[in-house]
Amino acid sequence: MQKIHSKRKYVSINPDGAFFGGFYLDYYILKSEIKIPRSDIKATVYGIEIEKKYEEDGTEKLLEQALVNDIFASKENTEKLIGRLADKLIMPSTLEYVIDDLLGEKGFEPPEVTVNIM
């Protein structure tokens, strides 16, 4: 599986107060190849991963992440979906619900979402 960085958003928690903090949301395209058993047929499929990170002492630390494999066979459709997710600041903890809603509207069975909270 290949992980390709697509977008980064910074979410400010308290920009007007004395304490200035926030976190980053990194959106990735997951590219993998699937093969049909007992055949030579292969296909490239794309998924999405979101990582929520914060910075401490100049080092980025992972707070949580979620990924969905094999959503589309088109990189362009995956990039469009990531654009929508990033514009709405979708976080790893809500990715499962958003994917379920989006694909459910089109009548598709949503793929499995893996969420890790650090």
Describe this structure in words.
- With 118 residues, the chain is of the alpha+beta class.
- It has one domain (2-111).
- Helix content is 23%, strand content 50%.
- It contains 2 helices and 5 strands, in the order E-E-E-E-H-H-E.
- It has helices at residues 75-87, 92-105; strands spanning 2-12, 22-35, 42-56, 59-72, 113-117.
- The chain has a 5-stranded antiparallel sheet, covered by helices on one side.
- Strand 2 (22-35) and strand 3 form a beta hairpin.
- The radius of gyration is 16 Å and the shape is elongated.
- It starts with a strand and ends with a strand.
- The mean pLDDT is 85.
Q: How much is the average pLDDT?
A: 85
Compute the separation of the termini in Å: 22 Å
| SS field, number of helical segments | 2
**What order do the strands of the largest sheet run in, or round the barrel if closed?**
1-2-3-4-5
Shape: elongated
Which class best fits the helix and strand makeup?
A: alpha+beta
What is the multimeric organization of the chains shown? single chain
Radius of gyration, in Å, reads 16 Å
Strand content: over 45%
